[in-house]
């Protein structure tokens, strides 16, 4: 069987019906609730997420989906978390590998820098925060759609996230985007 070749000089590979695809920053789409619905939302979660930590009010995070393919079961997302941004403790129903492009990700006692990464298996609970200069991360998942299951975020944890958001709000508003984020902003 012959393989087709396009202007890139690459062929379609060995999977019937699959072909090479190029994805570009300016075609990235926002990671919304249709692609990543929330699951296991407690009363404390719901209350906290209706205030300054709600997705609509959260200017400390910029997340775009660069590529997602249901047939193959893969997605690639770009995340830019501004300085000191704190994610809530959560898990996903898909395996995920994270690659730090720039800045720092504080994962428990570990500080991950450009070139470092981490893997979270499906169902594994985790939480991390951006370092003092923020963090850019590529997220590779074994699903085109996946959930975000909140887990163990107490009122005190949400209060800490909200206080951090309030303390950093002005800085986040004026934070210049990294090149990749700027291209995705159009």
What does this structure look like?
With 186 residues, the protein is of the alpha+beta class. It contains three helices and ten strands, in the order ββαββββββββαα. It has helices spanning 43-49, 155-174, 179-185, and strands spanning 29-30, 38-39, 61-69, 74-81, 90-91, 96-107, 110-113, 117-120, 129-141, 148-150. The strands form two sheets. Strands 1, 3, 4, 6, 7, 8 and 9 form a seven-stranded antiparallel sheet that branches. The protein has a three-stranded mixed sheet with strand order 2-10-5, with no helix packed on it. β6 and β7 form a beta hairpin. The protein is globular, with a radius of gyration of 18 Å. The model has no long low-confidence stretch (mean pLDDT 85).
Number of helices: 3
Question: What's the average pLDDT?
Answer: 85
Return the structural class: alpha+beta
Which consecutive residue ranges, at least 5 long each, have pLDDT under 50? none
Distance between the termini: 41 Å
**Main sheet specs:** 7 strands, antiparallel
Instruction: Estimate percent helicity.
Output: 10-25%
- Roughly what fraction of the amino acids lie in strands? 25-35%
What's the alpha carbon Rg, rounded to whole Å? 18 Å
